[in-house]
Amino acid sequence: MGFYSYLVVSTILFVLGIVAVLARKNIIAILLGLELILNASALNFVTYTRFVNNNIDGHIFALFIIIVAAAEAAVGLAIVLRFFQIRETIHVDDATQLQG
Amino acid sequence: MNQTVVSYLLQFEPIKKLVLSLSNLLGFNAISIVSFLIFLIVILIVVGFLATVGGLGTYAERKISADMQARIGPNRVGPYGILQFLADGAKMLLKEDIIPTQSDKFLFYVAPMLCIVGVFGTIAVIPFSSGFTILNFNVGLVYLIGISSLVGLGVFLGGYGSNSKWSMLGGMRGASQIISYEIPVVLSSLSIVLLSGGLSFSALIGAQGGWPHEWFIFHNPFTFIGFFILFIGSLAETNRAPFDLPEAESELVSGYHTEFSGMRFGFFALAEYIEVFVVCGLATALFLGGYNVPMHLGGDGLIGQVLQVGSFVSKTFLLYYIVIVTRWTLPRLRVDQLMTMCWKYLIPIAMFNLIMVGLWMWLFDGRSLFTLLFKSASVASGAGH
Amino acid sequence: MFDTILFIFAALAAIVGGILTISVKNLMHACVFLLLTLLGVAGLYLTLGADFVGVIQLVVYVGGVVVLMVFAVMLTSGSNAQKVNRFGMVKIPTMGNFRTYTLAGIFAALILMSIIKLYRNVFSMARLEKLPEYYPTVSKIGHSLVSTHVLAFEISSVLLLGALVGAAIISRPKREMR
User: Fold this and answer.
1) Which residue in chain B is spatially nearest to C56 when comparing CA positions?
2) Which of A1, A3, A71 sits opposite C163 (nearest CB)?
3) Is residue C132 pLDDT above 60, yes or no?
4) Hey, CA dihedral for C59, C65, C69, C72, is it positive or negative?
5) Which chain C residues have a beta carbon less than 8 Å from that of A53?
6) Is residue C147 part of a domain?
């Protein structure tokens, strides 16, 4: 519909993702916000491909963002499961074993 | 490019005259309104057809199972009991909608919706014929696989939201089964994509012919095995026996849809029967030649299109019959046997198939076994001149 | 006209899903709203002519990541954590309260200002006057992945292998030493 509309949507998603990462104290809820951030940036890349220079590299980069996000979600959730097995809680403020 | 049913219908004179007259009437180019109306009408027709197929699927299952078990099955409602599914539908609509108080009400609303959306979203790309496909999406195969994975999520959320042990177990088993068996299905489809060179259904079906020796199932021995892997994987995707552990009637009291009543349960059941039709259509399109008719009978006109629809639907119904007979023949697999079969047997075989099909493409230029055996023999014996 | 309507639907789905993801108190509901957001973003990709990226988003995110999140939520629920930490202070509720959202909002506003400053360069970039027709992107992406970006392609396959093996090992149940 317009270059600026897509940029506005991706900026809103990015900011919402940042709010989720900062405001929530549950590890999985923080990972949900992280997914929002990654999606917003991939949307930006694809927008530039269509409106700015029609170079297929934008789509390639969006594909790699999707791949990396999937791998990181898998490993992150495995770590969360391990943490839950040890500590019986998934509150971020309980991950304080290295704290002074 | 994407070709839709609208672009096919616009070849005909009456539609073009309609668009012209509407444009003169309204002042702007009426093509968008006409195309929206055509899409709406065709989608309603296809949705009605699929819902009827889903309902008649329940009837066919009861009749075929009765036949195999030496009983009669439903024969009271309508001639030979054929309106039984309408009676079942009316019963489900009139039932009281019970939602347990400790359950998650939002998930109770959402889970059947996800199953239905996951199944009805695929009708946009099902290739009924070369003209009547609603949208010949140029990545149609991947779209179908992606939308079908919504069903697994719906199964799991239904089980989790019911807040009951049996439903939870059924939901977990169902979701893990669906996401595990997506892998052999996708790998088998990928070997066909290698052979035909495109992801759209028109490319996949256009690379096959009408006669059985031109279908991909007989193209080389690896696609023959691939067809059975796709079929087994599709049986597990739709939670049909012998993989129906999530809804095992004798073990889990109906599994993940125990707590759903009335039309919510109706959505789950309808989604299952329509999904069987969709995956049988997928197997037909990929391996059995899709909508091709032998010798291109009827040409490209309307008669040819009707024959193509008939060819596709008859092959899909044949596979549907085989799915129903399989349910009432084979015993149910245990959950660890199910997972073992997927991860230790089907996935290695499917990966081997993919590599071997690639090797076949390189060695023999993608020609089928029949072409190699018979065409080369005829050329060698001088019959080609 | 239909392009605008489709864009508005997809954008609305993405933004409403995003707002609801970050504000609901129940974690499972937040995962369902994340699913809505991802579907909206897939729709936005399709309106931008990125057909392959859109359907891959559908397959990977909807069929993979959201199912993973939902499984993880189910496996880590039912924690009987204490309400006070070891210093005796009441812990912040796990899904955030008014204070955390306010602080996050202030910080997000700061980041928004810096993003808008970055956009000034973007808006002065030269743009295409005539948008190209929608073309199938699959063959271009395929050619590019094996010719120009083959290194990234191979490294990403090693990354996925590492993620697969790592996730399986990290979450393996602890076997007791006898």
Assistant:
1) B142
2) A71
3) yes
4) positive
5) 128
6) yes
Give the pLDDT confidence score for residue B380 in this predicted structure: 56
C63 falls within a domain: yes
Please give the average per-residue pLDDT across C27-52, as a whole number.
94
List all residues of chain A from 27 to 66 with a beta carbon under 8 Å from chain C.
28-29, 31-33, 35-36, 39, 42-43, 46-47, 49-54, 56-57, 59-60, 62-64, 66
Q: What is the rounded distance in angstroms from the CA atom of residue B239 to the CA atom of residue B76?
A: 29
Please tell me the distance from the alpha carbon of residue B237 to that of residue B275, in angstroms, as a whole number. 9
**Residues linked to residue B135 through DSSP beta bridges, in sequence order:** B4
Q: Give the residue on C whose Cα is nearest the Cα of A81.
A: C171
Is residue A97 in a domain? no
Q: Residue C103 falls within a domain, yes or no?
A: no
* Separation CA B290–CA B304 (nearest Å): 14
Model confidence over B285-314: pLDDT tens digits?
Answer: 999 988 888 887 777 778 888 899 999 999
Domain that holds residue C163: 138-173
Q: Is the pLDDT of residue B16 over 80?
A: no
Cα–Cα distance measured from residue B313 to residue B301, given in angstroms and rounded to the nearest whole number = 19
- d(CA B366, CA B380) in angstroms, rounded, equals 20
Helix (H) or strand (E) segment spanning residue B136:
strand B135-136
Model pTM score:
0.91
Q: Which domain, by its residues, includes A58?
A: 3-92
Residue B249: what pLDDT? 52
For testing contact with chain A, the best of C20, C23, C164, C170 (most A CBs within 10 A): C170
Task: Give the residue on B whose Cα is nearest the Cα of C3.
Answer: B32
Provide the 10 A C-beta neighbour count for residue C112: 15
Question: Does residue A99 fall inside a structural domain?
Answer: no
In the predicted structure, residue B251 carries a pLDDT above the cut 70:
no
How far, rounded to the nearest angstrom, does the alpha carbon of residue B252 sit from its chain's CA centroid? 27
* Interface A:B, ≥3 CB–CB pairs < 8 Å: no
**CATH code for position A83:** 1.10.287.3510
CA-CA distance, C171 to A34, in Å (whole number)? 21
Structural domain count of chain A = 1
The CATH number of the domain holding residue C29 is 1.20.120.1200
**Kind of pairing between the strands at B3-4 and B135-136:** antiparallel
Q: So what's the pLDDT on residue B384?
A: 45
Among residues C74, C97, C114, the one where a domain terminates is C74
Give residue-wise pLDDT tens across range B17-32.
Answer: 777 787 777 777 777 7
Q: Chain C closest CA to B284's CA: distance in Å? A: 22
